Amino acid sequence: EAFESLLRFAENRTSSLFETAYRPMAKEAAEPVKELFTDISLYILGAETTVESAVLRFFDSLFPLVYSRLINPGITDLSEDYTECLRLTRQDINPFGHYSKNMVTELSKSLWASRMLSQALSLGIEVINTTEHAALTKECSRALVKMQYCPHCQGLTLIRPCIGYCLNVMRGCLASVSELDAQWREYISTLEYLTNEMAASHDLEVALSGMWNSINEAILHAQLNGPQLSATVDKVCGQPRQQEGNLSSASIVPVKEVTEAQTLVMAHASLNNKRREFINYMKRSRTFYASIAERLCDGDLVMRDSSTCWNGEDVV
C-alpha cells in the first residue's frame, strides 16, 4: 500500500507538470505517463521487465509530442508513419540529452531494492503459511498424549508436565520445523540489508518524487536544441505538413517555464517509518523457528511455580 501510494503521488505530480508547464501536449502525454508508472508498479511486483525499457519507452512516446507540440508547433499532419519515425529517431539523436539515462540510473537503484523487498516479503509469507500447520508423526502424537493425559489415569488432573519434559516432547515433535532456523535468521538479515539499502542510496521516495524534475529538464533540453533536432529529423523523416500563417504565441510554451518543486508531503506515515517499524518487528522473530518449543512450553501448559510436576512416568 505504501508503494502504491508513492507511485500515485509521483504519477499525479508528473501529470501536473504537463498540465501546468506543457499544456499543448498534456492531453496526449497522459497515456505515456500512465504506462510509465504502470510499468514501474509491475516491476516492483516482480514482472519480467526492466526499469530501463520502461523509461526509454516513455521517452520514445514523448519525443513525437515534444517535437510536434513544442519544437515545431505548426505541424498539423502527424501520421502514424511519421510518429513512428520520430520514435525511432529518438534513439539515434538522443534529444533529451543525459537526462533520460540519468533517470534510468536513479530509478534502477531504488526500484531494485523495492522489488527485492517486495519479493522477499512474498517469500516470507509463503514460508510462514507453509509451516503454520506442522504435520505430527505418530510418535509425536503418542508423546503429546502421554505428556498431557497420562497423569489423569492416576486421578492427577491438576498436575501439569515438568518444563524439561515438555521441552523434550516439543523439540521432538518440531524437529523438522526447527531446521528452518538458520535459513530464517539469514532471511531476517537479508530484510535488514534491503531496508537499510532503501533508506540510503536507494531511497524510493527521493527517486520517485524527483521524476517530474528529470522529465522537465529533459523536455527543456530538447527545446533548447530544437533547431538542430529539426534539421536532423527533416533529413531522416522528411518535412511534415505545416500550418500556414503565424502561430499563436499561446500555443508555444516558454522554454524557461518550470513548475516549482513542492515539498514532498505524504498523507500517511512515510515509507521509511513503515520500513523501520517493520524490520524492528521482524528482528524480534529472528529466533522464532529455533524457539517454538520454548514458546509452547511457556505459560499454562507446564508447572513453573510448584515443586510438583509430571515427568512422563510419575509425579516428581
From TrEMBL:
It is a lipid-anchor; GPI-anchor. It is found in: Cell membrane. The keyword DNA damage does not apply. One of its GO terms (biological process) is regulation of protein localization to membrane. Pfam families: Glypican. Keywords: Cell membrane, Glycoprotein, GPI-anchor, Heparan sulfate, Lipoprotein, Membrane, Proteoglycan, Signal. This is GPC5 protein. It comes from Tyrannus savana.
